[in-house]
Automatic annotation (TrEMBL):
Gene3D superfamilies noted in UniProt: Cytidine Deaminase, domain 2
InterPro entries on file: CMP_dCMP_dom (IPR002125), Cytidine_deaminase-like (IPR016193)
UniProt source species: Aspergillus bertholletiae
GO molecular function annotations of the record: tRNA-specific adenosine-34 deaminase activity
GO BP term, example: tRNA wobble adenosine to inosine editing
Secretion signal, residue range per the UniProt entry: 1-20
Name used for this protein in its record: Cytidine deaminase-like protein
Length: 236
């Protein structure tokens, strides 16, 4: 298979051995037989998981994930599960969108009455066929979980750099660094960043910038206040 080389891959020559997990393809390309239009479809699904699971048009922690099987490259692929950040909802500080989705997929895959009915060990192995789409680059906790799960592919929208530039507190370790440091975990995970960032970025730009317009359906009740569901929409 032709592997795409980019400056990032070049940089890695000097640090770690180059493995498939550390190749960083151009998001516009067809990668693993999947065209950009399909990547965009699933990244939008990760965004949509927010409205579906939070029932708010402007959840503050707007981190959404969709986990998809497209080992069969015909068609769009098969959605296995979705997840969103559930810190607030559950009180569990580790339930970032990606962890929530991995947890949900495990439930879906092992549900004795569900579509898959896998044993626990089959469920663990199933992640090697799956692609995780997250609308923002994973923090090092989630990036590590993605490598422990052995996902086939990991695709993110907004970068940690963009989050930080827009006021989000973060642990300043990129997914690339986590992936580089996990080169001896197999299987490897193909890595794609900045996919449809033009559509994921707006989910993260209003929280710490009181002049930034609220998402549709929300408004600020006063100067500098948080975006909340508009009264008009609440009454609908
Ligand atoms: C993913 O798709 C492949 C090929 O279509 C199939 O063999 C595999 O069982 C699927 N995995 C899951 C978890 O659905
Ligand atoms: C789990 O994923 C399924 C399938 O996409 C979805 O219907 C369900 O609401 C999700 N549950 C949670 C708790 O996120
Ligand atoms: C975002 O960019 C992609 C191309 O990278 C394009 O297909 C899509 O229409 C753009 N979205 C918007 C809302 O402009
Ligand atoms: C909001 O407050 C900031 C300072 O706190 C001020 O610079 C800005 O002009 C105000 N905007 C409006 C619309 O009142
Ligand atoms: Zn995380």
């Amino acid at each position: 298979m032709h592997l795409v080389t980019l400056p990032v891959a070049l940089l890695l020559c000097f640090s770690q051995p180059i493995l498939s997990s550390t190749v960083f393809p151009d998001p516009a390309l067809t990668v693993n037989g999947i065209p950009f239009s399909t990547r965009a479809h699933w990244m939008r699904r990760a965004n949509e998981a927010l409205g579906e699971l939070t029932h708010s048009p402007c959840p503050f922690a707007a981190f959404g994930t969709a986990i998809v099987n497209h080992t069969d490259t015909n068609g769009l692929g098969d959605l296995i599960c979705i997840g969103v950040n559930q810190n607030r909802q559950t009180g569990n500080p580790a339930l970032h969108g990606e962890i929530a989705a991995i947890t949900n997929c495990t439930t879906v895959l092992t549900d004795p009455h569900g579509r898959f009915r896998l044993t626990t060990s089959e469920a663990q192995d199933a992640f090697a066929d799956l692609t995780l789409y997250t609308n923002a680059e994973s923090c090092p906790m989630c990036a590590s979980a993605i490598r422990w799960a052995g996902f086939r592919e990991y695709v993110y929208g907004t970068s940690i750099d963009t989050l930080v530039q827009n006021g989000w507190s973060q642990i300043h370790i990129s997914s690339l660094e986590v992936f580089q440091a996990s080169w001896d975990l197999s299987p490897q995970t193909l890595f794609m960043g900045d996919v449809l960032a033009n559509e994921t970025d707006p989910y993260f730009l209003w929280q710490f910038d009181p002049t930034y317009p609220c998402p549709d359906g929300c408004s600020r009740s006063g100067n500098g206040t948080r975006c909340r569901v508009s009264m008009r929409d609440e009454l609908k």
